[in-house]
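Regression check, N-oxalylglycine case 279:
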Amino acid sequence: MMEVVALDAPLGARIEGLDRSRANEPDVAAVLNRALAEHLLVVIPGDRMTPEQTRIFSAAFGTPQKQLLRYKRSGGVPDVSIMVSTLMADGTTDKTAIRAEDWHTDDSYFAVPAKATLLHGIEIPSRGGATWFCNMHSVYEALPEATRKRLDGLRSVHGYDTPRARNRPSPRTPEEIAETPDVEHPLVRTHPETGRKALYLNPNRLDRIVGLERAESDALLDELADEARKPRHHHGHVWNVGDIVVWDNRATMHRVVIDYPVGETRVMQRVLIEGDRPF
Ligand code: OGA
Ligand code: MN
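Current build output:
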């Protein structure tokens, strides 16, 4: 029997006893999606899968969508990307891993960002490399009343890059540039399934708040990020080979800690699940 076990943490649940081959059955998929909306992060231990099996499994959460960066897409199954974040001797990793070191939510540079991301551990270093998650409902609720009032109705500009981000992203091809003009999103969004409000922040992509001077916008964004950086909103997932981890991009941020041994391979399969326009 499948069971949803809430973690003793600000977010997350572990799915026990799931037969992954049944994930797309409507009653099973409904339990998985409810667990995701409620806990924002679901961890599903199990065996390693092929990209094709991962694509089929991911459809339990919605429609898989191709990710922007073409070079990541796995040849035969373009909905599944292969993310290599192995730490090299010169201290570098793939660009996307370096970017993922700071808190972010995936895909917010699109007008309709992915609702969820699925990551599947294929090769995991012997230690380190946890992925940390932040509950953006609890961040919003922890803000002083006056700040929450101030955020009401504010919109922000997200782009592929912003000088506010600590690291630069992977270069885009002309085709990828054409697909990623700046977009506007509300600074506070409502989760379409639970109705809860979440701070929609992304230190990697959020450039400025519409209608504020740069200095004022920077100060407010820094103040909001300070709340999100507090450990009381966080949970870290320590990876085992075969884990499937799915997070809700509508109400979380995440980051990877690049503290694993040099040269030990870290490889994940990744699927983005189509979302709705934030409101
Ligand atoms: C991602 C991401 C973090 C990790 O795939 O979007 O941020 O731990 N990954 O690899
Ligand atoms: Mn990410």
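Comparison notes: The radius of gyration is 18 Å. Residues 214-228 form the longest helix (15 residues). No diff flagged against the previous build.
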